[in-house]
Predict the 3D structure of the following.
Amino acid sequence: MPITKAEAARLVRRTGMKQAEFSVVNDGALTLLNSSDTRACVFLLTDTADMNGEGICSVYDIRPKGCQTYPYVLNHDDDAVVDEGCPHRESFESPGEEMATTLLNLEERILREGSSD
């Protein structure tokens, strides 16, 4: 999950973790890491690698915008769609134009930050 520098700074302040403990630069964008044990986000409290396993987000109240909008993502045409990788995709309605605008704005912020490094 790509995150902004401001989101990373907020996660550092609130969790006490170092940025390198929860993120890495991937294709120029700061991206949340997955746990090697569970293959889930490092902030997901779970003890299983099962995709349908129970878990709770430990940073829910300050979770990044990409996490807030998931499972909606942009396709190659910059249309908002439900992520193909979401195991519960049939539970979500098709996103509207407002979601596409939100995702495009987020993507622009993340890409702009990555190009300024």
About this structure: Strands lie at 23-26, 29-32, 44-45, 56-57, 72-74, 80-82.
